[in-house]
Amino acid sequence: MLKTPKDLSSRDVGAGPGQPDELLLSDRQYRLWAEMLENKTGVRIATHRDDFVRRQIVRRVGELGFDDVDDYFREVSQSGAGSREWGVLLDRLLVKESQFFRHQASHNFFKTRLMAHLQSPQQEQRYSVCSVGCSTGEEVYSLAMNAFDNYVSVGQAPGFSIVGIDVSSEAIESARRGVYPNRHLDSVPRERLDRYFSEASSGSMEVNAVLKKRVGFFVSNMFDENCPGFASPLDVIFCQNVLIYLKNWRRRDLLNSFVAKLKPGGYLIVGPGELNDWQPEGLSRVAYSGIHAFEKPL
Ligand SMILES: C[S@@+](CC[C@H](N)C(=O)[O-])C[C@H]1O[C@@H](n2cnc3c(N)ncnc32)[C@H](O)[C@@H]1O
Asked: Is 80 exceeded by the pLDDT of residue 39?
């Protein structure tokens, strides 16, 4: 029989009957989980999410019927099956919130730069983009809509590809499906809904094949050098609402590692307020109102 969180024996936990289940995880145990999450993904748990994260871990221990939180920790951190279980847990712990055209000025900048590319002598080269920490796909499809519109407006076949990567397999599955509830589509203008979406059921719409063909989604860690999103040189790396979860030194390491992945003339677009004045070595800050982006010199 599966044990519920209340059945758990907890050597150094100290929870009694009737107490909230998050108390079943001691501070020592919680620190181990928080450290593992940070070591594997870079993500630091914000203090206001501590209780939520504790509850999720304890709930999972109960679902699987482990006798002790430490046994579950060992299972996740050491065994081969642990990595699968780690994936399940990650899906519950990470913040995966996203929106279409979330930061409009950044999307406008992307559209302007792609248009400049289409009017340049390099126009025939494939335009390659990676969305890092793409969550459920809204960012990737927003970029794809802008890119598609640009190619159509200059009368060219769409010669671009956009890859989204995220460490959450649940998020990537949802991104691949490309089905969104109508209330999630408020920030997509009507004419784009007509052009790029079809009704999936009452109350939700699905991205059309024409856009899906231009995008790819991969479960991958952005710190992994073999991440499929970085397989070929990129014109744009779009990385928004991800850096905020990382310590400063990790943000810097990550962004420095992006420099080599950009083509000369490529852009790194981060979220406003996610970096201070620091800039990655070898890139220069772009002057464009309301955004935070860098260019790799030609
Ligand atoms: C708040 S969402 C941002 C989604 C999207 N970029 C946006 O701005 O709407 C942050 C995403 O980063 C992902 N993430 C966190 N650490 C990651 C890592 N090490 N590698 C890849 N993705 C990661 C999370 O799973 C989550 O889906």
From this structure: yes
* Rounded Cα gap, residues 280 and 268, in angstroms: 10
Note whether residue 98 is domain-resident: no
Assign residue 81 the CATH number of its domain.
1.10.155
* CB distance 171 to ligand 1 below 6 Å: yes
What is the total count of domains within the chain?
2
CA distances from 255 to 75, 115, 248 (A): 33, 25, 11
What span, in angstroms and rounded, lies between the C-alpha atoms of 281 and 130? 20
Q: Judging by DSSP bridges, how do beta strands 160-166 and 127-132 pair with one another?
A: parallel
- Same domain for 169 and 131: yes
Long-range contacts for 195-201 (Cβ within 8 Å, ≥24 apart)? 195/145, 196/141, 196/145, 196/148
Ligand 1 and 218: CB distance under 6 A: no
Q: For residue 223, which atom of ligand 1 is closest to its CA?
A: 19
Rounded Cα distance, 33 and 56, in Å: 11
Tell whether the model's pLDDT for residue 6 goes beyond 90: no
Does the CB atom of residue 40 touch ligand 1 within 6 A?
no
On whether residue 99 sits in a domain, the answer given is no
d(CA 11, CA 215): 49
CATH code, domain carrying 218: 3.40.50.150
CB 238 within 8 A of CB 141: no
Residues 197 and 226 in one domain: yes
Nearest atom, ligand 1, residue 95 CA: 1
Model confidence pLDDT, tens digit, residues 205-232: 999 999 999 999 999 999 999 999 999 9
The verdict on 109 and 241 lying in the same domain is: yes
31 within some domain:
yes
- Residue 74, domain member (yes or no): yes
